[in-house]
Design goal:
It is built from three helices and six strands; from the N terminus they run H-H-E-E-H-E-E-E-E. The protein is α+β, with helices and mostly antiparallel strands and 134 residues long.
């Protein structure tokens, strides 16, 4: 597994509108992956704040990549549950999305995602997820 393999998975397994987020694989390790979501006026609300819908899409995408890293290959899966808390607005900076696999069994996988400002490192959103492995 390497960064290029994970980056290529974005083009291979995700819908065009997800690809339009322009996510970049920043890093990965045994627990998960970190993606960068570049600041983009098309994803922003009044005042340049990143919209929650973009954060949730990036979080869901990051967790699928974390599962690819965990299993060493793509396994079909679907989101069963995603619980998000928005802690503060993110304005005028890229977002870093860190997704960690907490547990992955035969039929379910559980994860946690932290989204923070790339410049200030402050957490702006937290999510917990459950995926059905198909």
């Amino acid at each position: 597994m390497n960064t290029a393999t994970l980056q290529a998975a974005l083009a291979e397994y995700f819908a065009p509108w997800v690809q339009a987020l322009d996510l970049k694989v920043e890093a990965f390790d045994e627990q998960g992956v970190t993606l960068r979501l570049p600041k983009n006026p098309a994803l922003s609300r009044v005042g340049g704040m990143l919209c929650g819908q973009a954060m949730m899409a990036a979080a869901d995408t990051a967790m699928v990549l974390a599962l690819i890293r965990h299993f060493g290959e793509f396994r079909p899966c679907t989101t069963v549950q995603m619980n998000s808390s928005f802690l503060k607005p993110l304005s005028m900076q890229d977002a870093l999305i860190e997704a960690r696999v907490i547990r992955a069994g035969k039929s379910l996988a559980f994860g946690e995602i932290d989204i923070r400002g790339a410049d200030d490192g402050k957490s702006v959103s937290r999510a917990s997820t459950t995926y059905a492995l198909l």
